[in-house]
Amino acid sequence: MPAIVSANDVTKIYEGGFEALKGVSLDIEQGEILALLGPNGAGKTTLISVICGMVNATSGSISVGGHDIVDDFRGARSLIGLVPQELSLEPFEKVINSVRFSRGLFGKPRNDAYVERILRQLSLWDKKDARVKELSGGMKRRVLIAKALSHEPRVLFLDEPTAGVDVELRKDMWEIVRGLREDGVTIILTTHYIEEAEAIADRVGVINDGKILLVKDKAELMAQMGRKQLCIELQEPIAEIPAGLSAYELVLGTDGCSLEYAYDTRGERTGITALLRDLAAQGLVLKDVSTSQSSLEDIFVGLVGDAA
Amino acid sequence: MNLTAIKAIFVFEMTRFFRTLLQSFISPVLSTSLYFVVFGAAIGSRIDTVEGVSYGAFIVPGLIMLSVMTQSTANASFGIYFPKFIGTIYELLSAPVSFVEIMIGYVGAAASKALLVGLIILGTAFVFVDLEIAHPVAMIAFLVMTCFSFSLLGFIIGIWAKNFEQLQLIPLLVITPLVFLGGSFYSISMLPPLWQTITMFNPVVYLISGFRWAFFGEAEVSIGLSLFAIALFTAVCIAVIGWIFKTGYRLKT
User: Fold this and answer.
1) What does the pLDDT look like over B195-212, one tens digit per residue?
2) HSE, side-chain direction, 13 A CA sphere, residue B220
3) Residue A53 contacts B where some CB pair is shorter than 8 Å
4) Which terminus of chain B has a lower count of CB atoms within 10 Å, N or C?
5) Phi, psi dihedrals of residue A289, rounded to the nearest 5°
């Protein structure tokens, strides 16, 4: 898949001297859902703002669909839809006018049928004549999405789309995002909810302190980076871990009935076979064995912690 | 040129204008009527004529200018400041529009609103005083030029302002005094010589004088000088806006 958005060594130093982006390079593939994961202040919003044109990069270059975002800003921006983090909407305007305005701003001729389809998809059609200020927070978020989609973008940026949104609406939002991907729209969303990245992303980029720490296929990331825990339950409690097992760095549960062994799935040898053999050699009788895989959250905390 | 975008901004702004009809139309009409009652009828009845024109008629061009200048500045500054204030500026900045197109949309809408208000006040004036316009085409031309140049100024103020106080600051502290002292309600020749000289540094004098000439065929300063003043003012505003667009001043970080 060719890259639809390509960032090359982008830096951003704000006037106060704050370095928000420290040489970010990133290729976003056409048709994928990429989740940019990072804590608050990691540079997620700055990166999006630079790509979309709200913030000037200090150095580096970015192209969208082959159009440089500075030299050919019209070409680049007409491909992009942006749903900002804040609920920034003209409060006194009608929903439908607000959406039509966005379409016009992007130079697209009026198309009532298309606007109606978008509003219906987002369950906003009933509210089309309502003033924006009369809407709930979740509805306003939908209006922002409708505005971003009004000009038929090929790339959609969602900056923290589900921040402060209830579970129900979050699920709806994910459905919408998946539907858009089926239409061939490339989606980049920022989030600090791991659950979100895990639920809908194809690839996950982890950003912290203005640097992209990694960008990986989600499943691959979890498989490669994932540590697994082997939990061994014993028939009889033991007071301490036998000396012969010290090499495995086992953790004894408080009741003395369970042993936990952490291993890395990336490793050539997980050491499980040897461990089980040695357990038997020590005369320990096993009651049950289970494994659990670390979530993206654990991976994330590990990565961000390592970088810090 | 993204003409569709310019149209979208223009229509959006004009919708706001018509949505707030009371504030947009009725308030300037009401305040102008009050001026006519107070200055024209009450005080004017004690003043015979100014430069051969009845005082009631004499203040018409000044009143229109006063409203048009205030309205242009207020409309344009609010128009671009409000998106900054509520955050919707993100959409303008991320759309495939150039700053020139954004400016044409906002300034065009602000100037159009001011022009409408100016024409309504002119209509109201006919109710109160006998009025003949010597040079109607020149009158409209002056009106349009004033609307545009002060809308440009308003646009600059709107971009510069960081809060509502700053948004009001220049109109309140600079524009209103300049307009009042620029001969809206009196002839410059009525002033003592020293003040006549000082007044000549007030750019608004040239605009009002030119506009008054279009009505009555008499001007306090030459019409060429008036045209030069308005052209210079517009050029300065355009230069400042050009610089803002080049640097992204207070728009982009």
Assistant:
1) 888 888 888 898 899 999
2) 24
3) yes
4) N
5) -135, 130
pLDDT above 70 covers a percentage of chain A that reads 94
> Which residues are within 8 A (CB) of A163 and not within 5 positions of it... i.e. 6 or more apart?
A85, A191
**Cβ proximity of A298 and A37 under 8 Å:** no
| CA nearest to A40, candidates A170, A208, A196 | A208
The pLDDT of residue A188: 95
Cα separation, A35 vs A33, whole angstroms: 7
From A287, A291, A174, A166, select the one nearest A237 (Cα to Cα). A287
CB proximity under 8 Å: A 136-155 to B:
147
- B156 Cα distance to chain centroid: 14
Confidence of residue A273 (pLDDT cuts 50, 70, 90): confident
Q: What is the pLDDT of residues B59-91, one digit of tens each?
A: 889 889 988 998 899 999 999 999 999 999 999
ipTM of the complex: 0.86
Query: CB-based contact (8 Å) between A70 and chain B?
Result: no
Q: Which of B12, B83, B90 sits opposite A82 (nearest CB)?
A: B90
Q: Does B246 touch chain A (CB under 8 A)?
A: no
CA distance B98 to B100: 5
DSSP code string of chain A: --EEEEEEEEEEE-TTS-EEEEEEEEEEETT-EEEEE--TTSSHHHHHHHHHTSS--SEEEEEETTEETTTTHHHHHTTEEEE-SS----TTSBHHHHHHHHHHHTTPPP-HHHHHHHHHHTT-GGGTTSBGGGS-HHHHHHHHHHHHHTT--SEEEEESTTTT--HHHHHHHHHHHHHHHHTT-EEEEEES-HHHHHHH-SEEEEEETTEEEEEEEHHHHHHHH-EEEEEEEESS--SS--GGGGGG--EE-TTSSEEEEEEETTSS---HHHHHHHHHHTTPPEEEEEEEEPPHHHHHHHHHHHH-
Residue A307 has pLDDT above 70, yes or no: no
What pLDDT sits at residue B220?
80
CB-CB contact of B28 with B66 (8 Å): no
pLDDT of residue B59: 87
* Chain A contact for B250 (CB, 8 A cutoff): no
- Interchain CB contact of A40 with B (< 8 Å): no
Residues in chain B with CB shorter than 8 Å from the CB of A90 are 82-83, 86, 88
Contact B96 A14 (CB under 8 A): no
- Which domains does chain A show, CATH number per domain? 3-223 (3.40.50.300), 226-307 (3.30.70)
Q: What is the pLDDT of residues A132-191, one digit of tens each?
A: 999 988 899 999 999 999 999 999 999 988 877 778 878 888 888 898 999 999 999 998
Residue A99 pLDDT more than 80? yes
For residues A233-239, average pLDDT: 88
Taking an 8 Å cut-off on Cβ atoms, the answer to whether B248 and A56 are in contact is yes
| Contact of A128 with A158, CB cutoff 8 Å | no
